[in-house]
Amino acid sequence: MSHSAAVSQASAAFSVSSGNERSLKRSIFKQNNSISFNSKSWASSLALSQRTTSLREAKRCTNTTICMSVQQTSSSKVAVTPLELEDPKEPPLNLYKPKSSYTAKIVSVERAVGPNAPGETCHIVIDHDGNLPYWEGQSYGVIPPGENPKKPGAPHNVRLYSIASTRYGDFFDGKTASLCVRRAVYYDPETGKEDPSKNGVCSNFLCDSKPGDKIQITGPSGKVMLLPENDPNATHIMIATGTGVAPYRGYLRRMFMENVPNKFTGLAWLFLGVANTDSLLYDDEFTKYLKDHPENFRFDKALSREGEKNKRGGKMYVQDKIEEYSDEIFKLLDNGAHIYFCGLKGMMPGIQDTLKRVAEERGESWELKLTQLRKNKQWHVEVY
Ligand code: FAD
């Protein structure tokens, strides 16, 4: 579906809607979903942001029967429900376990990257009907169907996936969770050819699933990436490679898109490393935050295969972007900023080396600084 098609569908959706806000939201999203289910084009992620824009526009148009424009002219936030999801003092943990998993349903699977991205990443919306609440930064476990090849007769092991939505989900009603999943494909190192028998079990199950398919979920799990909210004015430096951006999408929707009681007034700074422009994830949402909240959001991208060079003339990786802004980052950390790392394990050594080098250049001991950051609970790492 092209961007303009998404726009016109969105207009059509709310030009005929009436009734209360919740049913209005549902009708908009249902209409958009039914369109995007069948077209795994990369315009889908645009459609996703268009839905948000549409919703905001629709909120202004509830009393009219025809509302043609879907342009975002106000930075008003989207209402979310049920607000009781704000009440618990502790995050939900392991409500469902591998032996008693929850059967959820796939709502949609959309390719989240452009045609020139190496590999495929999908944005997957899962309907849990409000039964599997979670907080931003947590993960779900997924048990793919079939038999564990290492334990005949037993189910597959659980695979963890960071949740890429807020607790209210992409439809703002607390009934869905979204995942950002990269399809694990195996290439024979000698022939360079794909060997489907060795492709990743769970990521391929998820990326191939269809709306309505059942899915076994465990969790939610994880506390290390929870967004500390005691200080609304805090600084959050978020570093991701690829699908590592998932928890940050949740944070940023909570900070900038949703009308939640905890109003964010601090600074969120996202560093995202991917191969090229087509591999950028949720770029339209992030770009919009930059436009609407320039005082509170910064966004730096490292595109390793797109020609931009680091200061040593090598490829631009996320650690090179960090180095570029290291003075500011160190000052922010000294002032209590939280720093988060999420993505492939391989990202950490390069980043740690860079931070150590910068610390030494500043005459500081990185080991001492890291100990202090950990002690102060400013240091959050989830790599896989
Ligand atoms: P598996 O079947 O487990 O295979 C693993 C790898 O081995 C694959 O690359 C596969 O191609 C290869 N392989 C299989 N058979 C062979 C063989 N015979 N010889 C050689 N190689 C072989 N992933 C995401 O995409 N998004 C996320 O947000 C995300 N969040 C995570 C959060 C946490 C906390 C953790 C721990 C992991 C997260 N992951 C995430 C990774 C995810 O859990 C899975 O590990 C990943 O999807 C691969 O699982 P799979 O079942 O597809 O692959």
Automatic annotation (TrEMBL):
NADP(+) binds at residues 162, 182, 243, 304-305, 315, 343-344, 382. It comes from the Eukaryota. Keywords: Chloroplast, Electron transport, FAD, Flavoprotein, NADP, Oxidoreductase, Photosynthesis, Plastid, Transit peptide, Transport. It holds the Pfam family NAD_binding_1. One of its GO terms (biological process) is photosynthesis. Belongs to the ferredoxin--NADP reductase type 1 family. This is Ferredoxin--NADP reductase, chloroplastic. The lineage of its organism: Eukaryota, Viridiplantae, Streptophyta, Embryophyta, Tracheophyta.
